[in-house]
Amino acid sequence: MLARLILSAVAVGITAYFMDSVTIEPWWVTVIVAVVLGVINAVVRPIVKLLSLPINILTLGLFSFVINGLMVLLCAWFIDGFKVDGLGAAILFSIIMAVINWVLNLMFAND
Description:
By secondary structure, the protein is mostly helical. It has one domain. Helix content is 76%, strand content 5%. The protein has 5 helices and 2 strands. It has a two-stranded antiparallel ribbon. Helix 1 crosses helix 5, helix 2 crosses helix 4 and helix 4 packs across helix 5. The radius of gyration is 14 Å and the shape is globular.
């Protein structure tokens, strides 16, 4: 679990480094962002996906990108030092972070 947390924090840091519209002030906030995003994705996201199921079906699942962006914005609202410029930047952040997290888990996870 600690390894996945570290890999998620690295993915958050790499993504924020390459995006001008996302800022993370002190470097250690990346770990807090990784933890809070994990909790939000485990608790809030399933409820939001269930409530938005009709629109998600109508858009053939593309509304999931909007939901992921909203979860990033919710995380930015909770954490001081993590700033995202808008919904578009949050959606792009979630896509890039998911790809980087996937690659890092392929390279370093021992499951």
